[in-house]
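S1.2 Input.
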Amino acid sequence: MSQLSPEESPLSAERQAARERLAADRTGTRELIAALSREYEGIVEANALVAVDDEHDPEGSSTAFERAHVAALLAQARDHMADLDRALERLERGAYGRCEKCGEPIPAERLEARPAATTCVRCAAAPRRRRP
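S1.3 Output.
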């Protein structure tokens, strides 16, 4: 009976699959950040050419909303990228796929849907405690 090398073990295959999922998600997120950055810069540049009085100009409020909306999406995408980077660090440490709250394994289906997940479904669904 032949033994599998460490690189061929099922655990290594799972780690490689996780690494590929995280890399694919990072690529998509990087592209989203670039697109949103271009959109935001376009909004800012377009508004720089026009003297907008947000209070009295009917277009001013929608322009401000659009700029704020794109800025929020951009911040969300950057936060997601940071989450993916932390997931890669957990993968390298051997902690990837374990719930940070209870220590139980995170189901593979959850990691496929949310590669940067840090909690199992049960812990994620638990109500959060509010600080006094």
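S1.4 Remarks. Helices lie at 10-48, 58-93, 108-113, 121-125.
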